[in-house]
Design brief:
The chain has about 525 residues and is an alpha+beta fold. Helix content is about 45%, strand content about 10%. It has 19 helices and 14 strands. The strands form four sheets. Strands 1, 2, 3, 4, 5, 11 and 12 form a seven-stranded antiparallel beta sheet that branches. Strand 2 and strand 3 form a beta hairpin. The longest helix is centred in the last third of the chain and has 23 residues, at about 400-425.
């Protein structure tokens, strides 16, 4: 017989050790911009070392799109010490007139030709990374690819998984229980994950240069000199306008078991795209994409959450998962928080811990393609009109307003927060949920509403608001001290990363064409 929610909490409360030791990591993306709010055209700063090999500072799609990566932290204070130290070093070593863009949607970009692809050196692995980005540019355009986000990596304690088996009446143990449990969490995240853009989405507006003159189906309102917005939007970054891939709509990625997931990803990697085939692989001897499949490589699979495993050298993500199972999950639906100098707050992290644990302990039935499509429909409603009064969502055959669903979820999260806080000896989770849950019934308190209110009240462009914040945050970051690391740490990492890149470049023995052929042949191996 299935346990009810209170029974599950009772079991968790009796095993507090199973809730101690969450693993957390953050990957924060941010553009380097000039004083006029335009994209920096300068190369990756020398002080940041090799973007290919640096452990903490790299680039995403473009040379100007930085990505800051923390180590795994078992403590929230430690996580933010890492984040603050990376940001502190970064702003100290930017060009004097550059700042870090504090929102998800890009700054003013006159032309997509102004976006230089990230460069990773002359090694085959470095050239492949740039060629992959060339494919993204040619498939979807550069503007979509310079949208920034925050990725949150999360793992539950090792002691949690035997408790998980008890909660779910499962005979699985060890890594099998972990993989099944994380997939259950993922299914619930697809079902209820709309709460993340509702609460924390912060991109209701954008610079009209983002459209590059293209028509959309959205009925935008205008403000300032060149900003456009949707009145009830929470995260245009996550809409069809933003970081999505319509060509992937035919892919049916299954999350019901690890074998199902790996099999559906493998199938997706072999699906051909007539549109991409027409582009060709090379043009005048230069690669325009890695291949003409719907997905060039697994990284191109867009999802709001992913199962993950640290890869060994030469492994693909799927090979790592198949060999050793799921190790953690990656949340990809967080906008950069414009009200935080490092793009995310401690309160958000505490809420995510709480919400993801809730997703792990709740029953999680298998889902099919139709169910997945329905979850996406709910998600899309939230990102484009989530704050619309009395917006309705249907879940499990029941239709209720966002406020009603949010109240129900909040009540369970409040109960779970008590159990989590008791295991840790503080009230951080109760404080986080108490501060956040009022947004369900007062959507004017959400991040997106606050952003929109500021640009309306001041009658300024979205970009000017961001530019002003970027200057404020740069000054704040410059003024603070290191908490864990030091200048010497980052200077040594610069030296080490450059040396490692040089060693990789010297060790290459294959021509690039041969390397790609070998890479895709190896990717086929079980």
């Amino acid at each position: 017989m299935s346990l009810n929610f209170k029974q599950r909490l009772t079991i968790l409360g009796q095993k507090p050790q199973s809730l101690v030791g969450f693993g957390r990591g953050v990957e924060r993306e941010t553009l380097r911009v000039k004083p006029d709010g335009k994209l920096s055209q300068q190369p990756h700063p020398y002080a940041f070392g090799s973007a290919l090999c640096h452990q903490s500072i790299t680039t995403d799609f473009a040379e100007s799109l930085l990505e800051f990566i923390t180590p795994v932290a078992k403590d929230v204070d430690q996580l933010f010490a890492y984040l603050n130290d990376i940001h502190h070093y970064a702003v100290k070593n930017l060009d004097e007139d550059e700042t870090l863009w504090p929102i998800s949607m890009p700054c003013f970009v006159k032309s997509e030709n102004n976006v230089e692809l990230a460069q990773y050196g002359t090694s085959n692995v470095g050239l492949m990374k740039t060629t992959y980005r060339e494919g993204l540019k040619n498939r979807y355009g550069s503007m979509m690819q310079v949208i920034a986000g925050v990725h949150y990596n999360f793992s539950l304690p090792e002691d949690f998984w035997s408790t998980w088996s008890e909660l779910h009446g499962s005979e699985l143990s060890g890594q099998d229980a972990k993989s099944a449990g994380y997939l259950g969490l993922i299914r619930n995240y697809f079902k209820y994950g709309w709460v993340i853009p509702f609460l924390f989405g912060a991109s209701p507006a954008l610079c009209s240069s983002f459209l590059q003159g293209k028509e959309t189906g959205f009925k935008f309102s205008k403000i300032g000199n060149g900003s456009i917005y949707l009145p009830y939007a929470t995260s245009l970054r996550l809409s069809d306008l933003g970081y999505t891939n319509s060509s992937q709509s035919s892919l049916d990625i299954c999350y019901n078991s690890l074998d199902n997931y790996l099999g559906s990803v493998r199938h997706a990697l072999h699906q051909k795209s007539p549109e991409f085939k027409a582009m060709g692989i090379k043009n005048d001897g230069k690669y325009v994409q890695l291949n003409d499949n719907i997905l060039q490589i697994e990284n191109e699979l867009y999802a709001s959450i992913r199962p993950k495993r640290v890869q060994k050298s030469g492994e693909t993500p799927s090979q790592a998962l198949k060999a050793r199972g799921i190790e953690y999950i990656e949340i990809r639906s967080l906008d950069v928080n414009p009200f935080a100098k490092v793009g995310i707050t401690e309160e958000q992290v505490n809420f995510l811990d709480l919400f993801l644990t809730w997703c792990a302990i709740k029953p999680s039935p298998e889902i099919n393609a139709q169910t997945s499509a329905h979850f996406r429909e709910n998600f899309n409603k939230i990102v484009t009109e989530g704050r619309k009064p009395d917006l309705q969502l249907e879940i499990d055959g029941t239709e209720q307003s966002v406020a009603q669903w949010g109240t129900w979820i909040s009540e369970e999260l409040q109960e779970l927060a008590v159990v989590l806080d008791e295991s840790k000896g503080n009230q951080h989770y109760q404080q986080a949920i108490e501060h956040i849950i009022c947004r369900f019934t007062k959507p004017e308190l959400t991040s997106s509403a606050r952003v929109l209110a500021m640009i309306k009240e001041q009658n300024i462009d979205n970009g000017l608001l961001a530019l002003n914040l970027s200057k404020t945050y740069k000054a704040e970051l410059l003024a603070q001290d290191y908490q864990i690391w030091s200048d010497q740490h980052f200077q040594q990492e610069r030296v080490n990363s450059i040396q490692k890149q040089q060693e990789i470049e010297k060790s290459d023995t294959l021509a690039f064409d041969q390397y790609l052929a070998q890479y895709f042949a190896d990717a086929e191996k079980e």
